[in-house]
Specification:
Shape: globular
Mean pLDDT: 94
Distance between the termini: 53 Å
Strand content: 15-25%
Number of strands: 10
Bound molecules: 3-hydroxy-3-methylglutaryl-coenzyme A
CATH topology of the largest domain: 3-hydroxy-3-methylglutaryl-coenzyme A Reductase, Chain A, domain 2
Structural class: alpha+beta
Order of helices and strands: HHHHEEHEEHHEEHEEHHHHEEHHH
């Protein structure tokens, strides 16, 4: 999509926040051709019946509603998208829309998403000769992969399956096997854990080792998602504003105390999309923070620079283990409706949208922080919450 087309897409949603909730819903429903059932699930006070809640978790007594909102102005890989966000914090949705609008001024977000390959770990203990054990894994790899794939024929038929098995020496006498499993549109935790439990005794016997833990890793660095965008300096108020944003990001690359807050801001954008679509946001949080510390120091997940024209180029990369089938994604009525709003994406498209909204959020926060400060925009929107709290306690 050309830059001027993206801008006009963004403009088409201008003023969305000034509509009433009913008007917003009507607009989104019309735009996304939402079914009457999905539409009802977006507004029902409790779209999750108690019986269903009790099937999802133990000891259920009810459900816990959160505000559900739509971020607008996002253009991801040339396609405009209205993004559902379930979140309690004021100014998050406004900031996501604001950041997306800035990105749209430069053509929107471009993304690169890895195939959905999840890592399963099999820990093998009491390995006498780790180097020899690694060679054995090398010899057995093909046969083990083939055997495991036979046990997940339907996933293989869908184009997924075990891709490889890697061996890592971790500490004394410990070999850790990494099963690399393409889980297609599923987040994949259950199938990967099952495969780990299946491989463990076979590998332990071949290596003369003892079986340790068998569980997936949330440091899902084989399924990274990257979003980039270019924001014209003019849209940010000039080159000085670009330099200020680059400097703000530098602070978060250099200092873990600042990086923690900076990355929290990114996840302010991502988590609400994951909650709205029934995804395991704790898994993505864990992966994001572990990935941020991969070089030995906890750092910002983003990079920012000025290009030759003085425009801002921003990028965000993190592990994005999400699914659009399995788990509660299709069972929770609101999650199902939110996926419909997103055009029923596959897992890679959902990852692309989530990472883009993470970058949008961060861009808006850095613009505010490096300019007028966070409180003006944030507190203007938070003021209604404070007034409400005051009335309740009065
Ligand atoms: P503004 O400059 O007053 O906005 O910003 P604007 O009037 O130029 O509007 C720009 C767009 O923002 C609008 O475009 C809307 O999409 C959206 P339009 O549709 O009008 O063409 N927008 C709104 N959307 C919904 N409701 C609204 C609204 N106002 C604007 N009322 C804004 C105001 C709050 C957006 C801006 O100041 C901002 O983005 N601030 C950042 C806020 C933020 O980051 N909040 C997250 C919570 S703070 C935090 O926990 C994270 C942090 O610690 C992370 C870190 O440290 O890095 C900050």
């Amino acid at each position: 999509m050309r830059r001027d087309e993206s801008v006009s897409v963004a403009d088409a949603w201008s003023g969305f926040h000034r509509l009433t909730p009913e008007q917003r819903l009507a607009r989104v429903a019309e735009h996304t051709k939402l079914s009457a059932g999905d539409r009802a699930s977006l507004t029902a006070a409790s779209a999750l019946p108690r019986e269903l809640a009790a099937q999802f978790v133990e000891n259920a007594v009810g459900s816990f509603p959160l505000p559900l909102a739509f971020a607008v102005h996002a253009v991801v890989d040339g396609t405009p998208v209205v993004v559902p966000m379930a979140v309690e914090e004021s100014s998050v949705v406004a900031a996501a829309s604001h950041g997306a609008k800035l990105a749209a001024a430069g053509g929107g977000f471009r993304t690169k998403v890895d195939d959905p390959v999840t890592i399963g770990q099999v820990e093998l203990r009491s390995v006498r000769d780790v180097a020899a054990a690694k060679r054995t894994v090398g010899r057995q790899r093909k046969a083990w992969v083939a055997d495991l794939n036979k046990s997940i024929a339907s996933m293989v038929a869908r184009g997924g399956g075990v891709r490889s098995i890697e061996a890592r020496a971790v500490g004394k006498g410990r070999l850790v096997l990494h099963l690399l499993v393409d889980t297609r549109d599923a987040m994949g935790a259950n199938v990967v854990n099952t495969l780990c439990e299946r491989l463990a005794p076979v590998a332990a016997e071949a290596l003369g080792a003892k079986v340790g833990l068998r569980i997936l890793s949330n440091l899902a660095d084989h399924r990274l998602a990257t979003a980039t965008c270019r924001v014209p300096a003019k849209a940010l108020g000039g080159r000085e504003a670009v330099r200020a944003i680059v400097a703000a990001n530098r602070f978060a690359l250099d200092d873990p105390y600042r990086a923690a807050t900076h990355n929290k801001g990114i996840l302010n954008g991502i988590d609400p999309v994951l909650v709205a679509t029934g995804n395991d946001w704790r898994a993505v949080e864990a992966g994001a923070h572990a990935y941020a510390a991969r070089a030995g120091q906890y750092r910002a997940l983003t990079t920012y620079k000025a290009d030759a024209k003085g425009d801002l180029v921003a990028s965000l990369t993190l592990p994005m283990a999400v699914g659009t089938v399995g788990g509660v994604t299709r069972l929770h009525p609101t999650a199902k409706a939110c996926l419909a709003v997103l055009g029923n994406p596959d897992a890679k498209r959902l990852a692309a949208i989530a990472v883009s909204i993470g970058l949008a959020q961060n861009l808006a926060a850095l613009k505010a922080l490096s300019g007028e400060g966070i409180q003006k925009g944030h507190m203007a929107l938070h003021a209604t919450n404070l007034a409400l709290a005051k009335r309740k306690t009065a």
